Q: What sequence folds into this?
């Protein structure tokens, strides 16, 4: 287990803390859907997901550049959350076995479970579910290390970190809580935190496993202006330390402010890509947003429904049996 909160840096990590260097790097990318990147950490091919007659996702090709902040934007129902669910193993593409392929940091992930995806270094944040709200802030960070509810999910997503000693786990949790200014709240129930503090906790919790890429689904939703700057600062710091950030966001001010690259989805497809300051004037983007309503938000609350939890638990049990058999 790593004993430090410093994220794993990629080959371009560190140097990309310099805005001029990021601009130079991204200026080499052709601003068009599916554009090749200089050093992609994530490559996705032919992912489709249908729900009945609706095609929620139909992504032909997408690359995410290592070490920068990429925003995934699009009107309600564009398929952003479904796309997150698919590449993190929480949902299966309709095109599975028919050309769907995605790899993270050079490793194919299309046949792996959500837990394996997390172990590969691609970690997403989760909204506080009921059971996580009833745990303290510290317990959330330790995630089931003391046999709490939600343990299976924790095991599924944080196994690399679980391999360590409890003392080290605790030190790391405290270090992260201090970084995110939640130290004082460590004994409070997570459910008592404000919207912004919850977002900070979600981020801190995800960092317990030292991800190479962090995926944030609407990190600014429900955050009051006082904490917005702090959250934005944290996201930028992660990037400056070498982490790759992929986030879904509706707030265009936030998108313009922190994104090095913007990917636009509409009706399941990637319809535009480009630097934040130019992509919003792209006719395809304007078309995608015209008439779109931004007041309904499916969010990822449904992500941890009973059926999903059950499937994750089965996956974890199967992987544990496999590991035990491997040891024997
Ligand atoms: N479990 C599901 N069953 C049926 N349809 C679904 C399901 N999940 C998503 N959809 C549909 O897939 C489409 C894409 O939804 P998705 O939530 O991925 O969009 P989104 O871009 O994340 O939207 P938002 O910005 O509102 O969160 C929508 O038409 C939605 O109704």
A:
């Amino acid at each position: 287990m790593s004993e430090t909160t410093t994220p794993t840096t990629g080959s371009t990590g560190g140097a990309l803390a310099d805005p001029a260097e990021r601009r130079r790097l991204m200026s080499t990318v052709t601003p068009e859907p599916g554009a090749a990147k200089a050093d992609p950490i994530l490559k996705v091919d032919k992912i489709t997901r249908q729900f009945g007659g609706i095609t929620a996702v139909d992504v032909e090709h997408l690359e995410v550049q290592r070490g920068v902040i990429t925003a995934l934007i699009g009107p309600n129902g564009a398929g952003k959350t479904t796309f997150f669910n698919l590449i993190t193993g929480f949902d299966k593409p309709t095109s599975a076995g028919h050309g769907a392929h995605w790899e993270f940091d050079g490793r194919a992930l299309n046949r792996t479970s959500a837990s394996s995806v997390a172990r590969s270094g691609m970690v997403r944040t989760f909204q506080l579910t009921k059971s996580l709200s009833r745990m303290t802030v510290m317990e959330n960070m330790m995630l089931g290390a003391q046999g709490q509810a939600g343990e299976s999910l924790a095991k599924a997503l944080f196994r690399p970190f679980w391999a360590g000693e409890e003392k080290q786990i605790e030190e790391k949790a405290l270090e992260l809580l201090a970084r995110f200014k939640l130290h004082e709240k460590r004994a409070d129930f997570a459910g008592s935190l404000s919207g912004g503090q919850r977002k900070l906790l979600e981020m801190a919790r995800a960092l317990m496993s030292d991800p190479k890429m962090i995926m944030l689904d609407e990190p600014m939703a429900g955050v009051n202006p006082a904490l917005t700057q702090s959250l934005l600062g944290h996201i930028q710091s992660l990037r400056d330390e070498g982490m790759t950030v992929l986030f879904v966001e509706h707030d265009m001010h936030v998108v313009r402010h922190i994104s090095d690259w913007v990917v636009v989805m509409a009706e399941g497809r990637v319809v535009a890509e480009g630097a934040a300051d130019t992509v919003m004037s792209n006719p395809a983007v304007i078309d995608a947003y015209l008439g779109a309503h931004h007041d309904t938000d499916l969010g990822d609350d449904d992500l941890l429904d009973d059926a999903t939890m059950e499937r994750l638990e089965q996956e974890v049990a199967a992987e544990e049996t496999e590991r035990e058999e491997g040891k024997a």
